[in-house]
Each structure stands twice: as structure tokens, then as C-alpha cells.
Amino acid sequence: MPILAATRSSYPVPATERPTPQADDVRLIGVTMSYARGREICGQGERANHVYKVIRGAVRSFRMLSDGRRQICDFYLPGDIFGIELGGERRETAEALADTVLLVARRSALIDEEDGPMARQLWRLAVAELQRSQDHVLTLGRRSASERVASFLVDLSDRLGAGEDLELPMSRQDIADYLGLTIETVSRSLTQLQAIGMIKVGGCRLIHLCRPAALADLCE
Amino acid sequence: MPILAATRSSYPVPATERPTPQADDVRLIGVTMSYARGREICGQGERANHVYKVIRGAVRSFRMLSDGRRQICDFYLPGDIFGIELGGERRETAEALADTVLLVARRSALIDEEDGPMARQLWRLAVAELQRSQDHVLTLGRRSASERVASFLVDLSDRLGAGEDLELPMSRQDIADYLGLTIETVSRSLTQLQAIGMIKVGGCRLIHLCRPAALADLCE
DNA sequence: CGCTCTATTGAGTGGGGTCAAATAAGGTGG
DNA sequence: CCACCTTATTTGACCCCACTCAATAGAGCG
After folding, report:
1. Which residues in chain A have Cβ-Cβ distances shorter than 8 Å to B84?
2. Where does a domain end: A83, A105, A139?
3. Given B67, B71, B131, which is nearest A91 (Cβ)?
4. Could you tell me the residue range of the domain that residue B194 belongs to?
5. CB-CB under 8 Å, B66 with A124
6. pLDDT tens per residue, range B200-218
7. Residues A106, A55: contact at Cβ < 8 Å?
8. N or C end of chain B: which has fewer CB within 10 A?
9. CATH for B46
């Protein structure tokens, strides 16, 4: 019998089978599932049969080169929808950053519908993700290490709606693989931003933005 | 009276007013316009009232940081559609790489339609562009200079359907701004790829891929 | 308290950037 | 068609930001 499973588990656990009470943006009907920290949600090369909405926790989505270099494409936070692909095969792997609860819906429930409004919702979703990806391209292509870290913090603060006190759901390694840097460089950039009074690092998952506006200005 | 204008002109010139005879992918109804090399097609911050399909020539789409650093998000080649935005404002500027002919359609003709199949076409278009952008992220985040240039050449060859003889529609500066490098590094990478027998540079706009498969392998 | 995992800091290196000069490729006007 | 001018590309010399390798310091957990 499915239960709401917030406990650490080795395999994904169905949590409830009711559709979400309120659908914010896109109406998803599916099953909520729990994933333990680090667990794979869906893998590169698999058939893309489901789409996901983050209820609690956080997710990283990434691709790897054959020699092991990893690039994180995006992090997904509560409210975000991910996993909508064009063709049948997934191009990215998604993993839970922390213990995470997802709403899992059949892809067919979304895509095969001859429903104009729904298709437009999907389109909006795709365009919004495209814009995020293009911001990412700008950051990776033309910003220095500390600018990348600054823009990352600003973006995360906006998305979490957390104001000036950020609790990072991801490790330094994840940030590095998102920003195209190494963990050492991420760490040094944080130290440097702290030195110029932009932020205050209080434990490795806690960051206070002392001057959010100035931080945003760093990214132009 | 609008004419088919292939001549160099200072301002965009309407070419014909008939809809395209055959629509490949998305049925666009609009006006064909000619743009001289270097001319702006639409600018960052403007209202996004039109969408564009490349008939002849090529287009670069880019964003700039306040200090002048430029990041090219994508190049658009004959057959490609671009300029579909979510909100009202454009986030990127588009310019003609060479003398270019575009089919220009009103955005409203696409978006306001309550047409399921059309909305799905739009969605496919957006997802396809998203996938290209995510490939770009992987390249910028985790590949070395010569790997970037190699993957760029392979991708361009695929898209142009040109086989092993590539005619580049863009300058070294454009390539550099697309790949997050400098022109000097692009040039050195090309020289290096030539030195190991991968390509043959014959004039700055002509590149022959001697070993296309090996070149693709460089990008893993 | 000790073990393990993660993050920070330090020292040294190298890939790609900067600056500058040489070369090649286009245009333009005579 | 050629000489001249302008712009784009290549090459060289040198430097610096970010990477690598290594050691230290915290954090989390049993």
C-alpha cells in the first residue's frame, strides 16, 4: 500500500496516487514518488515515458562526455516541471539532489492530446526552459568564474524566493559542474565574494546575500 | 512596388508578398524581405511581433553584456525558423551574416490561434531549439578549445547538409563569440586540427573535413 | 571521539587570453 | 587590370585566470 515516504529509501517509493490538489501551471495527473538523495530519476538513453513535477526537494539534470566530464544542464526546484523530450530517448540523466518528492505523470497524458490550450502550455514551458538555457550559455561563454558564481546565487535566490538567506540544495561539485568550473574555483570565488562584502558564507550550504543588488550588477 | 532584392541595400527591402510556395515544417504566411550583410533584423528589448524563416543566407542571434562582451546563442540557416519569444520583449538581437532573404510572419498568425496541431508544431520547434541550446551548454561548459571548434564544424556540416566541403557563412569573430573563445584561439585551433590531418583550411571561408568521423569522435 | 566525506586553502602549471606584428583577402577608384 | 587601402586572419611572445595536485580544516554521523 503506497504511503507518503519521506524516509531514506533505496528505491523510489510511490507516495500517493491522488492527483495534486491544485495545479499551478500545467495540470499534471499522476503519482507522487519519493526519491532518496542521489537516486537516479531517469537516465540518458531511456525511453521518455514520463514527465515530472518537483513537489519537495531538488533535482539535477546532466549529460556526460565519454571521459567522465559532467555538465549539469539545470537544477529543478519545487514547482518546476522537467523531463519533457521531443523524441523517444532522453538526452539527459536526472538525479535527486536531496530526498525528493515528485509528481510523475505519463507523457502520453500530455503529448497525445489534441488539446490546443494544453499544447500552448507545453510550448510556454519549453520556451521558458529555452530562455534559462540561453542564460546559461551566456554565463558559460562570456563570464568569469566569480561572475558565474554571482549570477548563480542571484538566480537561485530568485527561484527559491528565499530573499537574502539562501540554503543551497546542491554541493560545490554540483555548482562547479553547472558553471563549467572546478570545486576549488567555486570555493575560491565564494571566498572572494565574501571578501568584498557581497555575501557571507555560513556553513557550506548557507549563504547570506549582503548586497543582492550589487551582486546582480556584477553579472551586468 | 516590392521586388526581389538580392542587391546590397541599406534598409530591409520587401521582396515578394506571396506566401511561400511550399512550407516544409511550419506553415508560415508572410512577406519575404531581404537584409544586407550585417543588418539588424530585430533587436534586444523590442516587441516581438514577428517570426522569421530563413530562405537564403544566414543569421546570428546574440546577447551582449554591458561591457561589450558578446555571446552568440545560435546561427540560423536556410529552412530554420527563429524569433519566437514567450513574452513581448526580445531577449536577443538577430543580424544577417550575409545578404539574407527571410520570410517574415506576424507572430499573432502563429500564437493566437487556438489550433492544436499548430501549437504542437510550435512546441516541437521550441524543444528542438532547447536541445540545440543544451548541446551548446555542454560544449561551453566542458570542452576544450579544439573540441569546441571540432564540434562546431561537425554540427555545421550536418545542418548545411554540405558533406565534407564546408563553406562557412560566418567570420572567425562570430565563431569565437559562439564558442566562448577569442578569434586567435579559433584560428589556432583550426591550424591545429589541420596539423593532425582532420581538416584542410582553404581560404578563410572554406574548410574541407578530411576525416569527418574522427572529427566527430573528438567531441565524444 | 574517531571516521568519512566535503570544503577550503596553498603552490605550481598550463590553456587560452592579450597585445602586437605579419600576412592574406576584399573592395574601390583610376 | 592594377595599385592602394581597408579589413580579416594568422602567427608570435608573453601573461594570467582557472586547473591540478596536495595538504588542511570542517561537517556530519555512528
Report:
1. 127
2. A139
3. B131
4. 144-217
5. no
6. 999 899 999 999 999 999 9
7. no
8. N
9. 2.60.120.10
